[in-house]
Specification:
Helix content: 55-70%
Shape: globular
Strand content: 5-15%
Number of helices: 22
Structural class: alpha+beta
Radius of gyration: 25 Å
Number of domains: 3
Strand order of the largest sheet: 4-5-7-6
Number of strands: 10
């Protein structure tokens, strides 16, 4: 039987200032800037879609509020980083002394780290909203190339101050500090500008001070690279921090050179699939419908009754648990058993059901999944804001279960034959990193689709996992798959 790991999420802590009021302020001030701007100018919500002047007003409001919110988030992040670094030293000593105070210090450290994770995901949400369509894939690609850690608080503060100053210069652009995000790890600041022609992106490196000048000269004299011997020499002359900074500068320059090379279409060895992805790039496809609008009622029911369950399309289940619902369940692993009998009320509870229970799909903590993985719609982008606070502060937990076998059956009724990519084909897909394992089907690396026309297509596991990452309805995924065959017919 699938298990749900018991988890105690520590965010609030008596040794820290309350976090939820700050989070609420960031959400309200940052993400409502466009709405406030158009209302102040006499427009109504929706005019920004049809009226050019209203759209101009909306964009300026968004950019201005995001720029101000970044400064508040950055200051709080840096303050927490100073506390974290100092606490790390204390924890090292407490471990050495085998002090009973260690557990309390570790819980404080966890609260700090969790707060920082929420703050960086807030900036991720801002990046996702203001980035031009299609460039999001580039930021995600770069996030997986990150090596090393964030700069120290003082350096981060200097970069934040530069970005703050630049954000005062124009209401048509925003400068985002890369190290306050998870999804932009190239350059120190990423500048996003918009005008009537479109949206533009520029990377900026901020290196100040005599030491950085010296390190830059040494790197230039070595042709832009540094050997281990060069790094050893830098450390002996200037210290370990200089060595780390030199390595960081080299990485930044390397990433700058890679910037254009990384932006390319989906990599595939199959010429037909490449042609399909090229066609998709110019097709005007309808957005896939989501179940985001169901979450407010789901959470409201859980608050009232302790737990709430919604079924979607006969193959997808959402379960919301409030604290009293968790208490009623006892161990969270009982949720699997409870949902099983809700789905199959005709079955009696017997020992023989264990085999059937073991075949059930896993339950995914939707909030935790979309906070921890970058290719997702962060819970900080859900709505309304009261719901966001409930799920992020762990008062309400939302679990999701996607029954792929039932999904495949529904697809077959629409003349779409689906099969998992496994065996030698799956191993090759894993080796080439064309797909990751599927949630709940660890030996499967994507799905093969056979259309009624006889045409076939392979899709990565991330495509079906849009039910988690982007809150897409299962039927929305099937509609999109069916549209792929229509596009192929026109090619």
């Amino acid at each position: 039987m699938g298990r749900i790991k018991r988890e105690k999420i520590i965010i609030e802590h008596p040794d820290l200032e309350p976090f939820e009021p700050s989070l609420k302020t960031f959400l309200e001030w940052g993400f409502d800037g466009g709405i406030r701007a158009i209302k102040a100018a006499g427009y109504k919500l929706g005019d920004e879609v049809t009226d050019a002047n209203a759209n101009e007003c909306f964009r300026k409001g968004i950019f201005s509020s995001f720029a101000q919110t970044q400064s508040g988030i950055g200051w709080l992040f840096i303050e927490l980083e100073r506390k974290r670094l100092e606490l790390s030293k204390q924890i090292k000593q407490l471990r050495s002394d085998r002090s009973p105070a260690l557990q309390g210090a570790l819980e404080l450290q966890e609260a700090i780290i969790n707060r920082q994770a929420i703050l960086t995901r807030l900036i991720d949400s801002i990046v996702r909203i203001v980035f031009p369509e299609g460039w999001q894939a580039l930021t995600i690609n770069l996030s997986f190339q990150r090596s090393g850690c964030r700069p120290g608080p003082d350096e981060l503060l200097r970069v934040l101050a530069v970005a703050w100053g630049q954000n005062q210069e124009s209401d048509r652009e925003i400068h985002i500090v890369s190290d306050l995000t998870n999804i932009v790890q190239m350059g120190d600041i990423i500048r996003i500008r918009w005008d009537q022609e479109g949206v533009y992106v520029r990377l900026q490196e901020v290196k100040t001070g005599e030491m950085n000048d010296k390190l830059g000269d040494l790197i230039d004299s070595g042709g832009g690279t540094l050997s281990i011997t060069d790094l050893d020499e830098i450390e002996s002359k200037f210290g370990l921090h200089a060595r780390e900074q030199a390595s960081r500068i080299v990485r930044q320059r390397d990433k700058f050179r890679e910037f254009d090379a990384i932006w390319q279409l989906h990599a595939t060895a199959d010429p037909f699939e490449k042609k399909l992805f090229e066609a998709l790039a110019v097709e005007e496809l309808k957005p896939m419908p989501t179940y985001l609008s169901l979450l407010p009622d789901l959470v409201a029911d859980a608050k009232d009754r302790g737990m709430s369950v919604y079924g979607i399309d006969g193959c997808f289940w959402l379960i919301a648990l409030a604290e009293k619902g968790r208490a009623r369940l006892g161990e969270l692993k009982n949720l699997h058993h409870w949902l099983f009998h809700l789905k199959y009320p005709q079955l009696e509870c017997r020992i023989e059901e264990i085999e059937a229970l073991n075949r059930q799909p896993p339950l995914i903590n939707l909030t935790a999944h979309n906070m921890n993985y970058l290719r997702t719609r962060s819970p900080l982008m859900w709505y309304p804001k009261d719901l966001v606070l409930d799920v992020v502060m762990d008062r309400i937990r939302i679990y999701a279960q996607f029954d792929l076998d039932a999904f495949f059956e529904i697809a077959s009724k629409r003349n779409l034959k689906l099969a998992f990519v496994t065996g030698k084909e799956g191993e090759e897909t894993r080796r080439t990193k064309a797909s990751t394992p599927m949630l709940g089907k660890q030996r499967a690396y994507g799905v093969k689709v056979k259309f009624s026309s006889g045409r076939e297509l392979k899709l990565p596991s991330a495509f079906l996992q849009l039910v988690y990452s982007e809150l897409v309805d299962p039927t929305g995924i099937l509609d999109f798959i069916a549209s792929l065959d229509e596009i192929q017919q026109r090619m």
